[in-house]
Amino acid sequence: MPSRIALALCLCALWSCGSSGTTPGPLVDNTLWVPTTDGDALLGAPPADAECMLEPIDCDEEYPWPEGECVDRDPTSDCVAAYVPECEQSLTVLSVYTRMPDDRVNLCNWITLEQPSLRAIRAGDQVEVRTFHDALTAPVPGEARMTFVVGDQRAFDYMALIPSGTSFPSETWTADKDYPAGTQLLWHVDNHGRNEYMLIEVNVCDPTTTDTCL
Asked: Would you report the helix, strand and coil content of the chain in percent, each value rounded to 5?
């Protein structure tokens, strides 16, 4: 689990952003992500040892997750899930977990999720992607990856060497063309260690602010 204190401090200081060209606001709903096999052209084909246990384990009292709501995880629960829309402060974040409690067993070392975009993006609009990963501890040496795709473009593509500390990678992407509402969005994580990753939020930036996204 990540340092919840550090995460809370970061989430309390939401960054403002600016752009032009469309209605600002959230591009994703973190309760709506579903697994997909799409994305090989942009993400590369899964390796031979790619696996992900998509059905939660020992989660009878919690799963299915409440529709359209975040999950307030009980830290004492035996429930194990590869991806969960979790409650963090006032936000719903998408958490991805890569290992079982037994470090010798993979839970999910390669996962791609999809959903349709909530709003249109116009050429020149800026989209801010905010993420988090806990301290990356295994395997050593190793590499972790988080990627966010809009249509046919990688809007966020983050690689981290292992070991490394807790981090909040974020990036602002400028749209190369128009993308209508309902455009396929992909969120991808791959890593073989016992780690946690979060998609905090993705926003089309507000053109009325004087600050830039980052």
From this structure: 5, 40, 55
Residue 152: how many CB atoms within 10 A of its CB? 12
> What's the CA gap between 112 and 188, in Å, rounded?
4
Two structure tokens written together for 66: 């409440």
Q: Encoding tokens for residue 57? A: 């384990």
Residue 16 is encoded by which pair of tokens? 């403002």
Residue range 179-194, pLDDT digits in tens: 999 999 999 999 867 7
Instruction: Find residue 160's DSSP bridge partners.
Output: 144
Q: Which two tokens stand for residue 154?
A: 């990688």
Render pLDDT for 81-90 as a digit per residue (tens, 0 to 9). 999 999 998 9
Q: Is the peptide bond before 141 cis (omega within 30 degrees of 0)?
A: yes
Residue 30 is which amino acid? Answer: N
